[in-house]
Amino acid sequence: MQASRIGNLVEKFVNTDQAKQIHCQILVGNLHNLEPLLVRQILKCAAHYSARTTHYVRSILRCMRIRDAFSASCTIRYLSQLGQFRDALALYSESHASGIFPNTFAVSSALKSCARILCKSGGLMIHGQVQKLGFCEVVFVQTALLDFYSKLGDMVVAHKVFDEIRERNVVSWNSLLGGYVKCGKLAMAQSVFDEMPERDVVSWNSMISGYTRAKDMEQAYELFRRMPQRSSASWNAMVTGYIECGKMELARSFFDAMPERNNVSYITMISAYSKCGNVECARELYDQRSEKDLLLYNAMIACYAQNSRAKDALQLFDQLLKQNTKFQPDKMTLSSAISACSQLGDSEHGAWIESYMKEMGIAMDDHLTTSLIDLHTKCGDIDKARELFNGLQSRDLVAYTAMILGCGINGRAKEAIGLFDEMIDSGMVPNVVTFTGILSAYSHVGMVEEGYHCLMSMQRHGVGPTPDHYSIVVDLLGKSGRVEEAYELIKSMGSVAPHAGVWGALLRACSLHGNVEVAEIAASKCFELEPDSSGYRSLLAGIYAAAGRWEDADRLRRGVEEKGLVKIPGSSWIQ
DNA sequence: GTAGGGTTAG
């Protein structure tokens, strides 16, 4: 088959099956030396498609036995443009190892990849090669180096690289400016901004994001007002700034006032609504946007998963799989989907996702592994979870917490405590969720003293106990018959106002141990805090009944029925 | 070179 014919085919391929076919044709045709132009075409097409397509393109390239610097640099560049930084770097070192000298394109793309994944050692190595290869005066390479050090936060070296650039362009200046902005050195950023011989819209946008990061919205707005022309990034930066300052209304009014909204604008607003629990507004914006990309899907799926709407998350995930041949889910999509499965305890769906990942060649990362750890613990396979946990590249707070929670709900208190200690020893700072995990581990096996002391130790770890933590310990004390102590604990809460859950735990303890006196106190608090909930009334009625106080029990039960009647309207029997 | 998406509880 002619190379040009393959080129035409490649231009048209839209899904993986066609990509596969092309792959086979190349194999059969034994076209080891495709024209560089064709290589470019293949990669250009691949750039529009998914990770899986890239996977095939890589194998195409592999069977072509890349042996010239041009094909290699093209591939590295496209991979890096696709955001596949690790792949780009792997190919860079692969071709380097096989004796191909990188050109300036390959070097600057590889540096960009190092910068994006913060691979310090890789960048330093490439810097060394740059000197050997004599690329020190190529402005592309110099700017890539500058950007690499800026992203690492090493502004001393970054500035040095900048000083060595003879023909600085606006991109070099912007990289330096961006570096100071990112590490929070706003005064330095401002002086770079003032010194710049020319500024473009990126310079102004960087400066704005410097002020929005510092939550100085007045200065940010001043720049926004003064800048000669605005891009969508300028508007988006302002929206992000107001969101971070907790000013959702202002953020929304900027969003509404934008002359043109892009996916970044929508995603920013959707994830902000997600964080404050406003799923309806998020969905409304999601529906408004017709040109959806994978990130927009991901934002909405994550929004559902983060707000306990697991079924909706999975429904949207399935929709993405079925309706959109254009995008394949990526790591972000999958971790939200797995989280949703875990919330539902749906191990079948979870297993399907796992096999899907294998089939697609989607590599695991620590975030994804953490959601799988959570899934397996919720489905009772604690050994599998532990195996995944042991395989993590680095154990962060969330991973430890997921594992501790998992041990807790599976009755492995000892293991949970071991993990907790290990975590503290390695200098990590537990958060409120970690304590929920360790406390429920104690609760599960009835370790009363340990649980109580753990609650008391929270302040020492810099975590203020929340009402949820108190309810676990109240429940733990109550279950073991120490109702009075549980009551005393609630009274000692001070500034942490007990919610209905705390009093409810006490009420359940009273029901278990027939303590009418404390039950009446707990119940009256529950009624006060959650007047619409009938459960507490039934619980107290049961306690009265058990104590032989039939009249009181009856009075409460009648009250429940009356309330029940009031609450029903809205359902079908009205018709 | 600027602006966007993920994992732990309830």
In summary, what is this structure?
The chain has 575 residues and is mainly α.
Layout of SSEs?
Blueprint: H1 3-12, H2 16-29, H3 36-46, H4 51-63, H5 69-82, H6 85-97, H7 104-116, H8 120-133, H9 139-152, H10 155-164, H11 170-182, H12 186-195, H13 201-213, H14 217-226, H15 232-244, H16 248-257, H17 263-275, H18 279-288, H19 294-306, H20 310-323, H21 331-344, H22 347-360, H23 366-378, H24 382-390, H25 397-409, H26 413-425, H27 432-445, H28 448-457, H29 467-479, H30 483-491, H31 500-513, H32 516-529, H33 535-546, H34 550-567
The structure holds one DNA strand of 10 nucleotides.
CATH topology-level name of the domain at 485-575: Serine Threonine Protein Phosphatase 5, Tetratricopeptide repeat
Roughly what percent helix?
over 70%
Number of strands: 0
Mean pLDDT level: 88
Strand content: under 5%
Shape: elongated
CATH architect. name of the domain at 485-575:
Alpha Horseshoe
Family: Belongs to the PPR family. PCMP-E subfamily.
PPR repeats: 169-199, 200-234, 262-292, 293-327, 396-430, 431-465
Protein name: Pentatricopeptide repeat protein
GO molecular function, one term: RNA binding
